[in-house]
Design goal:
Helix content is 33%, strand content 11%. It has 242 residues and is an alpha/beta fold. It has a single domain, classed as Phosphoglycerate mutase-like (Rossmann fold), CATH 3.40.50.
Length: 242
């Protein structure tokens, strides 16, 4: 696995406008989907784990989480692998949060793709800090029932930093900028504009992926809890709304 530069994503100040970098984009050159990590040891303990100093080395997948991620990877590979027809995709590009639970989930996906002889971008999982879990500040290490306290503020003010939490708009900004950067990176070296696209999988966390979905749907990030919940070890396609 390779890794990008480290950032802890400290709480951001108020923003005058939603920083959705996808709002001005009509089409993306590659296909994107979200994969939430499998059940983690933090999920089992019912605690919030969003501090990079802890979560990059602790709170990996539980036994159930490993089984979930392995199953999700196999299903993904089976659905993507061509049968008798030419492949629709250049291959799979896997970008993952560097938190342990996400890394382990991403590796299960990569193993399944390689076993199915699906080309893997750079032949590895690429770690990307912009996919880290939202920083929940003072609530980190506490009971996961406190998520709701932050979400109650989200719907009122997506720029808030209550409890020292990272704002919704901070998450929107970093994740949508990442998508644009990846769309450019994955297009480098393509001989023609008609070259087959990559299937890009973003392996991350509940809040980050809920919020990113609002950006693809061109919704305000404050509405992230109104979208269907993304269960652990679940893949969901991300499509730009018209």
């Amino acid at each position: 696995m390779s890794s990008q530069s480290v950032s802890a994503f400290t709480p951001s100040g108020p923003s005058s406008s939603p920083p959705n970098c996808l709002l001005s984009i009509d089409n993306l050159r590659h296909s994107y989907c979200a994969l939430r990590h499998g059940q983690s040891l933090a999920n089992v303990a019912k605690i919030i784990s969003s501090d990079p100093a802890i979560s990059t080395v602790e709170h990996g997948l539980s036994e159930i989480g490993h089984a979930q991620a392995e199953k999700a990877g196999k299903i993904f590979a089976e659905e993507l692998a061509p049968a008798d027809s030419a492949p629709s995709w250049r291959g799979v590009a896997i970008f993952s949060s560097d938190f342990k639970r996400a890394r382990e989930t991403a590796q299960h996906l990569a193993d399944a793709c390689l076993e199915a002889s699906i080309p893997l971008y750079k032949n590895e999982v690429i770690l990307e800090t912009r996919l880290r879990e939202r920083n929940f500040g003072d609530l980190n290490g506490g009971p996961d029932s406190r998520y709701q306290d932050v979400w109650d503020f989200d719907i009122k003010d997506p720029t808030h930093n209550e409890f020292g939490a990272e704002s919704v708009y901070s998450v929107v900004g970093r994740t949508t900028r990442l998508v644009l950067d990846l769309d450019e990176e994955l297009s480098e070296g393509n001989a023609t504009k008609d070259a087959a696209p990559w299937k890009c999988v973003l392996v991350a966390h509940g809040d980050v992926l809920q919020i990113l979905q609002t950006a693809f749907k061109r919704m305000d990030g404050s509405l992230h809890r109104t979208l269907p919940h993304l269960e652990t070890a679940t893949v969901r396609d991300l499509h730009l709304a018209d």
